[in-house]
């Protein structure tokens, strides 16, 4: 008899075991049982052949319609036409005439291969196949197949779906009683089968309801383990000891608030209180602050940093790009005024020193800042990855603020936290709205604050599509509109996916390098490029306007100068790549034209257009696209034009991403413990699992009374420790 830990070769033999390991990394019975079917074919119901797409790897159930053998180019060609009753598909075999005796008209079988197109007809060349036993000989059928429902597995060339099915049969037939890690009260509550029956019912269902319930139970398992892991992780944070960072006399905070030219929104007030409470705890804050671009996150974060400085500590703000770090620096210096000038002649009695640390500083300048951080003279430092480098140490780092979390890995975040003596408080800011289920899973160990309203006085951005294929003259009108906007004294961004189109095909390495500079480079096709478009406009459609370019291949000095010139109105039109995507804030910019809009993701477009309409002038965004009407791409762009609801757009974005992207790439990997769970589809299950997990941990925080459950959680922890929490 086999247990879950039994090596697979003891059940299926050495040769098959070797193929299982090579194809899917499967080495144990447990791993094989967790190789779940993609779907089920129903015996007697043939696969709809008309739905097959070219290039898909398919496994279909079909009936042989006719067979013919001919000779061409010195080869025997056996052509077998299979049918689902209406559509046909042809299978071809070269020099395998002997197969004719098996492949008789009328027989039904499973056929697997890659759909190709030959002379306009779809076909499978050299498919693998397994004929279903003839007639009503049910016993023979059952001997070879599970039953009426034939599971279709992820397969490999060496291991077609039905071979997996046969292995599964061997395993389930020899499976001993297996212990179930799921607490009985939970299986009872949801009327779930026990683990062994869940495995049997997902692989050899008697009916589809059985399969569905088994799938649900196994999916729930994954959600529950994940929630237990996150719950424990939270508990570990709470156990950490850190300094209380509530100032006795919040002088800086008070002086800052007196300087603020506006009142906090209600949302900001609420978040300020949440953060204040967090900072008063003995364990470090772990908070995610989400809010649309312009919702006032930076102001909230700055207030938190000042509290920490008031209590004698230091705060660091980590930004993903140099442009953004520089901008934060400028914004913060402006908001603080003389409060940021401690130690200089401009400084007043109250104040701190604020520094910018980026990679492009000279090493002398860096050293100077390093010294001020180590001595504690500098209260607030803003920077890029340079903050994480070896030379940096802090006198007393109390708070780490990370801006635009999706660009940072957990490792980088942690590297900065390692520079603190006690675990520092952590505030992560993101402008990408995070749907609820993603918040509960991917960010489940963070508390979440949301700024929903934008500070008053803003008019919403209008977004329109310019389909250049159908209406090329719309583009001329767009440039006309740019001129009008500038005539009104406003400024305009034009965003293009490329810096320059190369005159040769790029290598993979070069493409990667370009992507790192913020260019869209999925392929070698030419696209609108900043360095080509800008001169073209400056001498053509936008003649007479001040046009400048901004992109990742410029030196940071150049970028900084351009941004500063744009910010104070010297530049009217800025042609840029997505370097301007994050956080850039010029209230006088009222219009954006995005070229080749189909090259950008939904959330990215939403982020980009958030750059305009930040002042009191209405914002306008034009999406220029050569996508065809009626395509999915066009639908996507229409969705962006139709709504300003970031949560809705994040959802659309998520739906279009491939499986596995959300919970980390490890999800699609061979041995992942998260195989079935999908954050969007399984919202209800995740919700239930969260409630159950919290209830379990409430009575038994360490799970000491549930050793099997704990063992499963630990397996997940081991496997996911590096991979899935890392959302950058
Ligand atoms: P975010 O970081 O979320 O993009 P910011 O904190 O940079 O938003 O704020 C965007 C703009 O709105 C800034 O110019 C900021 O000074 C301003 N702002 C922030 N809070 C308020 C408020 N309560 N009332 C008016 N303006 C505000
Ligand atoms: Mg910001």
UniProtKB/TrEMBL annotation:
Pfam families, A to Z: DEAD, Helicase_C, RecG_dom3_C, RecG_wedge
Molecular functions per Gene Ontology: 3'-5' DNA helicase activity; ATP binding; DNA binding; hydrolase activity
Family matches, as Gene3D superfamilies: Nucleic acid-binding proteins, P-loop containing nucleotide triphosphate hydrolases
Reactions it catalyzes: Couples ATP hydrolysis with the unwinding of duplex DNA by translocating in the 3'-5' direction; ATP + H2O = ADP + phosphate + H(+)
Keyword entries, A-Z: ATP-binding, DNA damage, DNA recombination, DNA repair, DNA-binding, Helicase, Hydrolase, Isomerase, Nucleotide-binding
Protein's UniProt keywords contain DNA repair: yes
EC numbers on record: 5.6.2.4
Residue span, Helicase ATP-binding domain: 278-451
Protein's recorded name: ATP-dependent DNA helicase RecG
Organism: freshwater metagenome
Lineage: unclassified sequences, metagenomes, ecological metagenomes
